[in-house]
Amino acid sequence: MHHYLTLNGLDGPMLRQFGCDCARCTGRERLANTSASLISLDDQGQTAHHILFDVGLGVVDSLVQNPHLAGTKARLDWIVLTHWHPDHTLELNRVAVSYRLRRRPDFRIPTWCRSGSADWLHREHGYDMEYLLQPHKSGEYHRPGTLLPPLPIDLPGVTITPVTVSHLRADISPNDRHQTRYSCAVFIIETARSKTVLLWDIDSENEWLVQPTTAAEKAAVQRLSGADHLFIDTGFWQYHRPRMSHPGFYNVRRIARTLQPQETLLVHLSGHPDGPGQPAWGWSNAQWSTQAAQVWQAENLPGRVRVPAIGERFDLIS
Predict the structure, then answer these.
(1) CB atoms within 10 A of CB 297
(2) Structural domains in the chain plus CATH codes
(3) Residue (of 178, 17, 155) closest to 75 by Cα position
(4) Mean pLDDT throughout 14-27?
(5) Which residue, 198, 76, 186, 177, is CA-closest to 119?
(6) Quick one: which H or E segment has residue 37?
(7) Taking phi first (over 0 means left), then psi (-120 to 50 degrees means alpha), and beta for anything else, what does residue 45 get?
(8) Are 156 and 1 in contact (CB under 8 A)?
(9) pTM, rounded to two decimals
(10) Average confidence (pLDDT) over 169-188
(11) Using CA atoms, how far apart are residues 145 and 150, in angstroms rounded to an integer?
(12) Which of 65, 139, 126 minimizes the C-alpha distance to 96?
């Protein structure tokens, strides 16, 4: 069996901003919220398994354009969610209803998320959680920097391990906004000969990724290190204080120095958070790649850095 990862989207929440005339908003490039699919092909090249990581705006359009998922080739074995925010869950209903229409009426898609996210989803996507999805929940009480048990997938030769992270404005209880509930996870995808890390969404304060102190944090950093591909949340170009809901490129560089990936791939991009007149304002993905590569070379950071493309394929060597 052959496995590959493909990007369904790599953009932040707003995609194009209403009323904005920057280069990113007026461009013709198709945008979609950050998402990826792990697709497994049998010896005849037919789709044998599909795991969908996050399903925000524009993701279903990417799925139907994938040659291994288009038309009657469509299959969806698992949905795996980093967290409950709308730009990672908006098209839950769309993908679940459309897929169920070609399956038996009582079919429910196995869905993994942390229990804090599940509580939010019961509130925001109650119909989907009750009738269309089969939730598999992981406790929210594990602090950031903890390796969780591998996902219960039936996919020989592939292990997917969640790691807890903090994400400002996602780590809150739906019943008590003052209560911290760690609701987010990132994922390590491993085969016998490859490692891919999906490191989104995180905030700017996951310092354990750079300076682990506890045994749990050190174990998590060790498992995250040395990836062939590190997909990492890059919400800002500049460094901001105080704590921000997403890391800036400054944080990305520090994390890459610690994790030492072969390739760093910038996702969850935007052209707006740094503000008008500031670097990254209105940048296209090509501009992000160019500017990031210049800094990478100047600072002698590990491997290479770039912005991937929607639909790009990354083979996972078994």
Answers:
(1) 11
(2) 2-316 (3.60.15.10)
(3) 155
(4) 91
(5) 177
(6) strand 35-41
(7) left
(8) yes
(9) 0.97
(10) 92
(11) 15
(12) 126
